[in-house]
């Protein structure tokens, strides 16, 4: 029998107690791991321990897969009509909405996300994603294909069965819902591994799964390390598909594990070094706000962070003046995620803090100009000032590699052709933002940039209805939108002979 | 400068001379490999004798081809060439292939051992129709406009990958090439194609048609070579954005691993199978027998969808096996020269395959199965194996579990629908299945319950260019054919245009 922990909150944004079961959630029950192991959850705003949760191993993954297989064959999958699956997902969305403040508090505590941002952009969008896919559940459609009059040919989009979902620490609840919602809508059962750094919202989520009435085994949550639980999922012979969001480095391991085991289908949402392109015919005041959002939202811990900012030389001085003011203003709004004035929180962990500070050091060493920020904020927790580097060159580490922190690299450009080439000169291809009031130019550039998403005169406005995913080494496959239904189903073609004799 | 070899054929099915360039086709030109010392001997499997030599490439040639393909993609293909122009060229290519159908059928019969009339009707005409079908899709590649709110225009584009690698097998060389070339070119990609080094001749001849049809140089590049050399170079190449492979599951794994270790290129795999044929006691037995024959013995069993496990309801077992045996023996009597009009059963493609299949036949015998018919070499020349049936088999035997890729059927009895569904699904493969019953509910119920990418009811092998094809489980990843193939060869870009949200 696993354990409960109660977290007490008493601050301006949230007052209350949240009880969480800290075990593994398998087959609708809370259980201890087969081999006892646990991890401390750290509050990145203070560096202090706030809870301890159980960690599983490959043995627990085996149990979860068995439970999921059983559910697929008896109470879920094609045994449970889409309308019923949709109803349960919609109920889950309602329960999450009822408990929105609790979820927000957990994310702010666990990931350091400023409360107001977490409520709208993380919890709010999670609810929307669940509700969106609830509506798709009974609209999974194949095709009827005309060939000739002696044949009926049609396709079915069938669930894979048991899918694995491995999610990151940057937007813990949101990324979990991006996997759970389409997977369940299409009739799969899921074995989830949240990040061991940010497990709390997944544990609360599991309790709502029970409350909403999902049959046991449909959703399983196995906290653990990537190298143990993540690897076990990637290698598992009875998991037919895995979807991973995280670093490109780990994404490779997952694809390799699939190649060496059962060739499970792999969807990857990986890193990025997304360009923001500011033309001199943009609306400057709006552009500066969007560009700041693109890089500094969630403390730069966003796969679509607009971390390379290309500014056309005609507008460069004005842009830099306003952008620097915004970055510094944000720096002044740094603090406790639970304070109402906070817009900039800590980085998620000590390891991430160190990594980002190393990149800042490398920027200085490579000869870029530290234009703003560049230092730790305060003395407690993992806060880094919003940082801007200018005089950047394409070969610098800070321009080539994904920093995943509040560090913008600014580059100048002259012409449209030049900036398209420079923006595309990366192995990544996740997102791009383009600012211009000239419609032809904006769309021309949007089409020419090698990215899975392109934002014109906006940034970060990801929507559950619009497909999302990477070009090049930023990923494989698409989530969100009707496209996600394809990602979580496999096509069966049925050929019925209605008159051909041989 | 590479040469051409002229093949002079004087047979009852085909008389004429066919000249084939032996080099590499890169950037619209024929060239020698950079390291010009490797050749492959191409063998006629009906006789075991050499037909001709061809050049073999290395990774250096793949690099040159990728450069040529990228240049074409940026200047004369991809977005620079409207879909309707791409479609027009594909239609012309199909017309040229149809014009030269006899030559291509002769090449396949000579190189692969297929009966000439089958090669013409099924392989060559199938390839013609396939390319024509995708010629028609070329200007119909559509994204979506997605409603979100009034301050935003959101739409998707389905964009080509750019340069795609395509690695094809030896069992249906021309047909498999058309399955790759059709959708890749229709959607605007440029391709680096590696045929099997055993059966490259139709691809080499096809390159001439690519030029004649007017494709810009670099759009189609054909590089012959070994899998571990050229195939590996393609799978690892940092500037190839997507690779599609048809072949064995073993090699499919290597392709995926190479992607994981290089640039995470998107991988489509069409792999092996151990497809079940299920014959219920309420089937039209006469038709079921004929279709089961085709499912198993077409192309000498060298088909990824070969119906190699035949499950027969105990109520009709005795009658089935008696008639099936007679038909299979009759097929064996038509074994012979692929160019003879009476031949329905040709050789296996190579000595290696011959040995492999005979190894499985030996294993069947040593594991205690009964050779009901066949089980031996046919004749003394070439790689002919008699169509073979094993009975008294059980699920643990190698011949029941592993893909043989030869004319060897295993026949099993069953009692109930539930039992046969479970038995048929007890495999790591999931490519295809055939179900014979006159009861519509049963037919469809079983088709839905079997874990396969294709299900054929009261038919077999009728793969259609409009209907998606691909594997469940370890039989593959992704789908070819039909509108679904357009998704296989494009990547989705979501475009979000702000029409009024102000911060």
From TrEMBL, chain A:
SUPFAM superfamilies for this protein: ALDH-like
Q: Which InterPro entries match?
A: Ald_DH/histidinol_DH, Ald_DH_C, Ald_DH_CS_CYS, Ald_DH_CS_GLU, Ald_DH_N, Aldehyde_DH_dom
**What GO biological process terms does the UniProt entry carry, in alphabetical order?**
acetate biosynthetic process
What would you give as a GO molecular function for this chain, any one? aldehyde dehydrogenase [NAD(P)+] activity
Coiled-coil region(s): none
Q: Which residues does UniProt mark as catalytic?
A: 269
One protein family per Pfam? Aldedh
Superkingdom as given in the UniProt entry: Eukaryota
Q: Where is the Aldehyde dehydrogenase domain?
A: 30-494
List the CDD domains hit by this protein, alphabetically.
ALDH_F1-2_Ald2-like
- Signal sequence span is none
Keywords (alphabetical) are: Oxidoreductase
PANTHER family per record: ALDEHYDE DEHYDROGENASE-RELATED
> Can you tell me which family this protein belongs to?
Belongs to the aldehyde dehydrogenase family.
Recorded protein name is Aldehyde dehydrogenase
This protein's species is: Roridomyces roridus
Automatic annotation (TrEMBL), chain B:
Top-level taxonomic group: Eukaryota
Q: Does the keyword Repressor apply?
A: no
Q: State the UniProt keywords alphabetically.
A: Oxidoreductase
Q: Give the molecular function GO annotations.
A: aldehyde dehydrogenase [NAD(P)+] activity
Looking up CDD domains in the UniProt record yields:
ALDH_F1-2_Ald2-like
According to its UniProt record, which residues of this chain constitute the active site? 270
A Pfam family (short name) is: Aldedh
What are the BP-aspect GO terms? acetate biosynthetic process
Oxidoreductase in keyword set: yes
Which InterPro entries does its entry note?
A: Ald_DH/histidinol_DH, Ald_DH_C, Ald_DH_CS_CYS, Ald_DH_CS_GLU, Ald_DH_N, Aldehyde_DH_dom
Domain Aldehyde dehydrogenase as annotated: residue spans = 38-493
What family name appears in the similarity comment?
Answer: Belongs to the aldehyde dehydrogenase family.
Q: What is this protein called?
A: Aldehyde dehydrogenase
What organism does the UniProt record list as the source? Roridomyces roridus
